[in-house]
Write the structure tokens for this entry.
Amino acid sequence: MPLDRVRTLLSGPFTPQPHGDWDLDHGGPPPVASLTPAAVLMAISEETAPQLLLTRRTAHLKSHAGQVAFPGGRQDAEDLDSVAAALREAEEEVAMPRHVVEVLGTLDPYRTGSGYLITPVVGVVPPGLMLRAQPDEVDEMFLVPLAHVLDPANHLRQSGQWQGQTRHFWSIRHDRHYIWGATAGMIIALSRRLETLA
């Protein structure tokens, strides 16, 4: 079961290995002077077949409008750490009660070209939660099968033009949903970590 493997991975010793948007092109960090700490919640719903919670950002946002994302955002000064930031953001964006999240641990930090260093926080939540999207930030919430998004057969390497250059990125499709960029990159990083388990 994918969830059992995730639990095993995060219960053992874990040395973070930062990665990010630029890795498929030239392997270096994004060309910014400093990175702003941020965190997202990779919430796994304990269904019969575990599901991963994702959101679609509203179309009017200044950055990443309309994209599929995890609940999350910038780490504020009052947040004790990345876990606190991810739980706060999930509560604000989708009304996820902090006390229902069983935090398993954190994954490799993800550097973005927009200047963020994102820490993915993995948590397990009960099935059937009554969540509510914050309409200023989230257009839609949906679940995708954890086994599907972690399966390397569903990881697609694509390319496109950005600021006059060809950029490569990962994507994952499920039904009508198109997951790409940093969100796909974090999922694929977890998948590759799981492949290293004996």
The domain at 2-6+34-147 is CATH 3.90.79.10 (Nucleoside Triphosphate Pyrophosphohydrolase). Residues 23 and 119 are 17 Å apart (CA to CA).
